[in-house]
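FORM 7B - TANDEM STRUCTURE REPORT

SECTION 1: FIRST PROTEIN
SEQUENCE AND TOKENS:
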Amino acid sequence: MPLALPTRASVRSGSPPAPSSAARLLTAVAVLFGLDGFVFGSWAARVPDVSAATGAGSAALGLALLCLSLGALACMQVTGRLCTRLGTGRTAALAGTGVSACAVLPGLASGVPALCVALLVFGGLTGAVNVAANSVGVQVQARAGRPLLPLLHAAFSAGGLLGALLGGLASAATGVAVHLAAVALTGLAVMAWAAPVLRGADAVLDPTGAADGDGPPAGRRPTAVLVVLGGVAGATAYGEGALSDWGALHLREHLHATPLLAAAGYAGFSSAMALARLAGGPLVLALGERRLLAGGAAVAAAGALTAVTTSSLPVALAGFVLVGLGLANVFPLAIARAGALGGPSGVALSTTVGYTGLLGGPPVIGFLAEHAGLPAALGTVALAAGVAAVLVLGVEGSSVRRPVLPRRPGWPAPVRFGLRPVAVAAPGGGPGARRHRRLPARPAAAGGLVTGSRGGLGHAPTVEVVETRAAQAATPRAVLFDMDGTLVKTEQHWGTALFALARRLGGELSRPAREATVGTSMRTALGVLYADLGLDRQSAWQDDAAWVEDTVAELLAAGVPWRPGARELLAELRAAAVPTALVTTTPRRLADLVLAQLERDFPDVPPFDLTVCGDEVPARKPDPAPYRQAAAALGVDPADCVVVEDSAAGVTAGLAAGAAVLGVPSLQPLSPAPGLVLRNTLTGLGLGGLAAVLAARAPAAARA
């Protein structure tokens, strides 16, 4: 009989935990990562002692470590399913408690068979906590709208460092069983605080209580990309697993290090990795992902070769440090990308592939050590780092593209602007079927739509409530959406990149200048930046623009959260067969990164009939050309359309095109204008509300 897993709905039907605040949740997730590292680092530091206590030689120890790997790999995919069914926070709490309780098992083994069983259980829970922690970390990162996973993995490395240091000290003072029992008790005490916060995470990360089907369906995962990302993570994790389980033994047996100095090898590796991960975000902004990852892999390869070819203990320790610095950010960035593309199941798949290297590396090293010697076996870490560098070239942030949409019955061939494909869907009867369909309007959400006579956002404007009378209002012929700041919380990424560019040029961008760049073209935004810094760099604007776009590409890969109500509004429009278009100033290569993530929430039909990007139009916003071009491609009059915008430039473009405009400001205040309806959020807005925006334009124009 197949295992029946409880669903989120059934779990929540009792007494759901209170939602955790964002700050407490981030702290709890960081603590979980740190605890995972602490438990694993404590075990790694005692591997030589466990080997001696059980009488395991190199081959037998390799077999026992293989059991740890098999247990972890077997539990990872199951954990991905549990994250989907129970929620990532609840699953993370269970896994963290379990791995803490079972940390003592390897220390209780008296022989190789018992050690194999203990490591099978311990490994299974290690795999579970890794998938669950990464899944909840990816969601926290997406909600925050900034890269956090390198920071969380820094907590893992810091925990590993602490566990290794304490393990080295304990190896000279107490037996393995007593030490690992203390580790288990410490972990359970930590989880007594963290578990309730993690259980409340699902109410924060998924406040709607969405059913299982809201996630990305397994059949539509970009499996090939996820496997490659897992390969990148796995090639570097091979080095981490090899040094964690065999590094101390190499230092003891071949360089005659004391137990404390041998533990310091792994401690130096972990501390270097933790520091590099703390600096991961700024390093990506300064160097770009390709340089950081490929260069880091090269540094790791050099460090590994140094550590296994030298006869000097200090030089070998320095080599361990270089490996940690080089490999630090590869795994978290790869897993973050997988989570953004595939959700918890994507994290599970890429983590499974990745941890094949982390957990499969030690037994491979054991086999090679038995036949070629431990130094030669550890030399394969350099080879694995080279493989990671090659794979990185295929998944560098700016090269990730939205998959080509499949042809479906009733869809015409894609329309093209220039050389870029733009999917135009007209299901159920050809191009005209959707354009001429009129739907009965519904009442708008109460208290939402306002049009103001003066003032702006944040200035308590005098407003008058629009009486929608949606039953008599005409349904828009099409709805044209801006992207950054309107549908998704990505406008801040452009600000992050511009602030970073200003610092790179030796200055600091002022807040008013940043506000003036919202919704503008890249050249206009850079002109504002140059003027604010007092620089004359117009001749270099294209190079600066490329740097900004590359930086934004890296930030987009970390996750694209919806603005409140945006996904629900799009879903209603798709269900009602109202044509939609995405009209953005963002260039195509970046827009595709966003679309690849948005389409996960629309498995049956793409969210937009048409996409128009900033590099596909003769003039950018505030010029009306982008919206006029979108309306023409859909075969509708702009006057029958509603434009949804968050910036002054976009509002100006929509009004100049002749459309009714709904303003939903994000970073920039919007002033009332004839034909513009202001709303604080898209939450609760439906088709009837959009009809009211269209109807409100006529009285507004009459007053003007």
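SECTION 2: SECOND PROTEIN
SEQUENCE AND TOKENS:
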Amino acid sequence: MKIISLNIRGLGLDDKDKLKLNWFKRLCNREKPNFLALQETKCQNFPEFWIEKFCGNSDYKYCCKKAKGNSGGLLMVWDPNLFVTNYIVERETFIAIKGNWKSVGEELVLINVYGPQNDEGKKQMWKDLKEVMNYDEALWMIFGDFNEVRAKWFNDFIKDCNLLDIPLGGRLYTRISDNGHKFSKLDRFIISENVLQKWPNLNAVVLDKKYTDHCPIMLQEGNIYFGPKLIKVFDEWIKHKDAQSIVEKAWSMEVKGWRHDVIFREKLKNVKMELKKWYSTSQCKLKGEIEELTKKVIDWELKAEVSNLSDIDLLAWNTDRDKLFQKEKNQTEMLKQKASLLLENWDGPRIEKALADKLEEEFSELETLEAIKSCGKNKAPGPDGFNLLFYIKFWDIIKVDLMKAITWFWNSGSISNGCNASFITLIPKAPVGVLKDLEGIRRDFFWGGSNEQKKMAWVNWNQILLLYDSGGLNISSLKNKNLALLTKWWWKFLSNKEALWIKVIKSIYGYNSGLECISPNPTNIKGLTGTTWSNIINVKHTLTKLGCDITNEFVKLIGSGTETLFWHDIWIGETVLKQAFPKLFRLESNKLAMVSDRVQWTGVEGRVQFSWQWSTLPRWRILFDLQQLENRLSVAKCSGKNVDVWVWKPCCSGIYTTKSLIEMLNSSVDTHVKPTIRNNLIPQKVGILMWRASQNKLPVRSELDRRGIDLDSVRCPMSL
């Protein structure tokens, strides 16, 4: 048995209704119901070809109640091979069909309801339903849009008729107003108690909506699959001496599939299962060892109370205590790790073919491994139970399959059904189109939901991502992490000038290759538009919109001055000197002069001496420009080192880190929320609960009412 009920809010022929019909057709094709109930069809006549459109079979039977004007209308569709009708009863607000469900051999009455808006109409609906139910002793199923929450009349009807309201999984509410301000639970499945004797495993779920303000609800027999049960792989398992052989054995097991991400997923499953088996056995052994050692230590203590212990006995006592401490520590570390699991991406110049091939190569193993190591070992790429310590420790075992999975995703841009998207975060940069979906997975996971089961979000996700000092939970968005990883390519370009790929980039795009922190970015770099390198360059514009100008954060620190162009590089001030002093630049005899060619720092006080070479001596007003230039240069600092180096200002070390940029992005958001108060002595879940309570973001009655959710009363039911 599988029944789908939906307030479809009109079955017309305009463009929106066509989209709605196509969506509902796809829903039926996916779920394959054998009984459909629609409310508010707004139809006077129902075209029979829609039956085949919905069910894929023109043999399905149906009955309908015409709409009154542009409101109302009911439709019921069923498979005659499963349900044989005896008679149909029609009332103002519902259609009741009595028949025989062949698989159980019992008479069953199915009632499709569309409740009225006014109170008098609702009273009459409950009265009519009771009259119909008094006619026969049968199995009863009532469903549809009751247009009412569980208030007095509704509760009295359920109680008087000995009915059961089946809990709905998947979502808290079945209707969301078009403006998103009001949430209601108006759609339900209500059954008689004897139905459960025939279908003991009935369950109901709210499905995702589209093109209508109501969500479809589905009643079916059997358990709903909400995804695999999470098995957490703890650090102590990975560090154990037996872990290597267990992972090697599990990874070598044969798996089915030809898509590389599927193969990687199945191998991870094998590792989980083998580790779980090993843990179940070793945990029993560990408990026994702890009990035995505890008894030994107690015996030593009792013995020491009545007599002096020899040196050998003292050594044995200390050895037993150390063993006990270590084993209890191993056990405690797993508990601590479990408790802390909260939450913590060509028209240009030609080059040699060999270099071009090198430039277009896919991600290397080394690059991916560096991305993994740059994150904390206790950080997990996703909720699949494996943290990054697993990937680092067993890299030699899993690297081949992991790289195949990453290459598959990068080439196809798709994730196979059933695969966790977590391995994507191991790629140093994620395609922008994927970030939104991944952020949605994180958001659902935080609120306890999934793709199959949605939960209400009580706090804006953007606020949750902020730093503690900005009133958030210091989680950070994947978008910011991706921007920080892209910016890291700027740092690599600036700090690794001898790298082959940098020489290739410069040979194609020129000296500064578009990095505005070196010199202003020309708008006519040939062949740059639409390339991978242009995406890296343009991260600057995205960051500027977020309030972070990285061109001012990367600063050239002058050492010897032999590696910095005097006129063309940004090394003093916020622009190049050729733009600040264009008249002097025109008089320069060597326009590619280095800083060391024009400026020397002498003496202990770092005094500046100038060495100018003019094609024509400056005169008149240009002398004023020269004086301004020398005044600026006189305050320039020299590091005293042998080389010129780039530094990242936000870090004291001067070395760029993705963490520092992420913190800048998270703190640059303008917010008036008070800083989050933290206490490391309480569990994180308790801390989050207190954080939500401080913002009135708990599901208490007053807050539910404020969000537009229908309640019979906002008063506490426990109060007098």
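SECTION 3: OBSERVATIONS ON SECOND PROTEIN
Confidence is low (pLDDT under 50) at residues 224-231, 334-351, 420-429.
The longest strand covers residues 106-114.

SECTION 4: SIGNATURE
Preparer initials: ____
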